[in-house]
Design brief:
This protein is an all-alpha fold. The termini are far apart.
């Protein structure tokens, strides 16, 4: 139990440092110091810095996948439009957490070259979860064959709204979210009616 608690403390400390300083800017000594242990003690839990980074990213993506699926399940009683809208809002709120938002941004834009393949595989799993959830919602409202196009547009909307969290005040961000959502959902209905 103590070993698991130390491992979790190492991951939490590493997450904070990797988010703020990046993979290259974070040393194992920094992590050990943050946990309150000596650097060699880290090797009882992780092979090296790459192994620790992948452990952190794995935990972050598993937690995110669970969050996304649980939010979708919680919203099932809502109309499909509301489900999509609230998933967009909840996703933004979840990633507004400084450390989570930063680590996701770093993973997407600047993954360590040596770990790029493993990180992209984790992203693919996350996209599979999102695709399954969003497809089931889209199929309720939009039964034409191009649901994948709508999914792609929604994914870009999610990514864009997330990215804007870093640049704008909450008020400006909310305005942009509402404007983007309005154009997106109107576009979905125009496509459906035009078929």
């Amino acid at each position: 139990m103590r070993e698991e608690s130390t491992q979790n403390k190492i991951k939490d400390t590493a997450l904070s440092l990797f988010a703020r300083k990046g993979f290259e800017g974070t040393s194992l000594s920094d992590i050990a110091s943050g946990v309150g242990i000596k650097k060699p003690s880290l090797y009882a839990h992780f092979k090296n810095k790459e192994d620790l980074f992948l452990g952190v990213i794995y935990k972050v993506t598993v937690d995110y996948n669970e969050f996304f699926a649980n939010e979708a399940e919680r919203l099932k009683g809502e109309s499909p439009e509301n489900q999509l809208y609230y998933l967009l809002v909840k996703n933004t709120e979840y990633l507004r957490n400084d450390e989570l938002g930063l680590i996701f941004k770093r993973m997407m834009l600047f993954p360590p070259e040596s770990l790029r393949e493993e990180i992209y595989q984790m992203f693919e799993k996350t996209e599979e979860v999102m695709k399954s959830v969003i497809k089931s919602i889209l199929m309720q409202m939009d039964r034409h064959k191009d649901w994948e196009q709508v999914f792609d547009a929604y994914l870009c909307l999610l990514d864009g709204v997330f990215e804007q969290v870093f640049y704008y005040s909450p008020e400006e961000h909310q305005k942009r979210l509402e404007n983007s959502w309005s154009l997106f959902i109107n576009g979905v209905y125009c496509r459906t009616e035009g078929k």
